[in-house]
């Protein structure tokens, strides 16, 4: 599987005030912006294309589906809410030569969070689903600032032979467990 990663400094490309500006034409944008530019067909329904000059993979590239579905979802959310998390499900391969219809389902609109489900369809079949959560920027806990636990270095840990010996002899393990461990064939690990 391949993944398209959009660094945070390019997050503005998904906001309505840039690539969907009515005064600008899609042809004046970069290839990336052209791929992300979706045609609005109706409320919460958009059409995307695979551009002829885009790299081809004999089917729609997964990163393109994720990017276009995320762009469609972002068009239905307050611009102050940023992507918080997403989950993508690839169901069937898409055809490069056909337009892709993105239908956005507004699952939840709250003060701080919004949730969208986006279905990408071709020939009436759902080929891809994206579930995405948006969150308003707020001060809060830093969940990723965890401190590394104090653990011994790898060279001080027991090797596989020592672990096996402990399983066989440690009285804290039940006898049934020790007997089961003794019956297993020991294969040394590097």
UniProtKB/TrEMBL annotation:
Q: What does the similarity note say?
A: Belongs to the C/M/P thioester hydrolase family.
Q: Which PANTHER family match?
A: ACYL-COA THIOESTERASE, ACYL-COENZYME A THIOESTERASE 8
Q: Which residues form the Acyl-CoA thioesterase-like N-terminal HotDog domain?
A: 58-135
For this UniProt record, give its keywords in alphabetical order, as a comma-separated list. Hydrolase
Which CDD domains does this entry report, sorted A to Z? Thioesterase_II_repeat2
| Residue ranges of the TM segments | none
One MF term from GO for this chain? Answer: fatty acyl-CoA hydrolase activity
Q: Could you tell me which InterPro entries the record lists for this protein?
A: Acyl-CoA_hotdog, Acyl_CoA_thio, HotDog_dom_sf, TesB_ACOT8-like_N
Task: Identify this protein by name.
Answer: Acyl-CoA thioesterase-like N-terminal HotDog domain-containing protein
- In its keyword annotation, does this UniProt entry include Hydrolase? yes
Q: Which GO terms describe its biological process?
A: acyl-CoA metabolic process; fatty acid catabolic process
Which branch of life, at top level? Eukaryota
